[in-house]
Amino acid sequence: MKTPSFLALSVLTLLLLVGCSGSAPPAARSPTAPTAPARAAGAPTVQPTPAGTPTPKPLGPSFVLLRAKELTADARLNFMGQGFAPGEQTTVTIVDGQGGVEATLDPVVILEDGRFDEVSVPVPAGLTTGPHTLQVAGATSGRTARTTFRLRWLPPTIKMEAYSGKAKHSFNFSGSGFAPGEQVDVLLGGLGGSPLATYTADSEGEVVGRDVPIPLVQAGDYPLYFVGHDSGSPVSVGFNVQGFRPWAVLDNYSPPPYYLMGFSGEDFVPDEVVLVYLNSRTSQPVTQVQADSNGRFTVKNAFELPELKGQNHIIFVGQQSNADLTVDFVAMAFGPALELTSYAGRPGSHVAFVGTGWAHDDVLHVYAGEAAARQEIGSFRADATGAFRNAGEVRLPVRSAAGGLPLTVRGDISQADVTLWFQVLDLKPSAELTAYEGPPGTVVSFTGRSFAAGETVHVHLRDAGGPDLGEAVADEEGTFTQLSSYPVDGQWGDVIPFVFVGQDSVQQATTHFKIANP
Prior knowledge:
CATH architecture of the largest domain: Sandwich
Mean pLDDT: 87
CATH superfamily of the largest domain: Macroglobulin (MG2) domain
Shape: rod-shaped
Low-confidence stretches: 1-53
Number of strands: 39
Strand order of the largest sheet: 2-8-7-4-5
């Protein structure tokens, strides 16, 4: 079905053709009309038109009609025209306001009546917005028909790969409908300020953006604008900036003393510095870490824990996100190891210690006996690593009862105590002489055994209250030998007792010398 404009064009064409096809019909001849006068001498003779030769018809006005005067870049150009020589060659162009050719279209076919049927072609690429002239020129007739139209761009369209993202991350997009080769700014939140990025449309007006940076803004919904420098029309889409929800985990939630704590975190602001505090933000941070481009970090052996007890917490503070994240952990108590250099001996014996896992430079106290009645018998210090070897030598109480004796070591800093058992041997001292019989004046020396280790032993004549003949210090085995050189005098009778008395243990041993007269 033809449109009204094209029907009007057909009627107009018919009228023009009829009006220009020949002269008006002759008037009716009267029967009484006089004959024409004789031709004057010398007047020219009019020759009739030869039979069979058609009278040429006027071409009429030439024109071209457009179906639409307002077009978009993705539309089609539909046009028809009339007033050309039948079958003549044509040139179809689009020219600008100064007559410069912007595009050349395919020629149109002129029919016998000088018109051409409707032609439909895509709007040529590369035309700018604004007015343009469609021009059809006949090669034979020399006629040219023109009509103008206005080109406008369709509003550009934008497609996002994702319509939400986190600050300091990026997004990708693609768009079409921009002016070929124009610069396209990407803006967040408004049309003012500096663009996030600028991209160039291709020859088809398409643009692709990769890794467009998202600035550090508050979480929420924002308009995202795409503005072409030439077309000028902004296109907006909704974009949600997600908030940060940082979290962190420790590599040990029950660390032993001096543990090298490690941790990892996610969802911080990319590349932000995170300060790490122990128990309080009022103190200096124990360390700091920088998140990667994805807001993550992992650190092994980040810092050494000091002496701690019970529940503690590590605080992570983001310098850009202002995140304040607390992770709790429970510090394990010291669990030191302890050994004795010997595990059995007589009262007064000396014993030292070997240990690891105590507090650094811990002051250690040594106690003997059960908890209710124990007594401190020495103290010493661990080294900078909390260890010691053959250290803290102490002497066991001389009057310790035979059997198991608990020895306890307790640290001032570590608050740890370890108890080991020492087997106290029974004291059964004995006394010996270098001779047990002889005439008066026989010289004897004294040997004692099984006294308390390290104690002083006195040798008395007759009984414990008798004359003190000499003294000696027992060794770790409770022994002393060859004490004194005493000439036995016969005035004490035929059998003379010698009594050995331990000064600390108060233990006694008695031996006898018999006077034998020659």
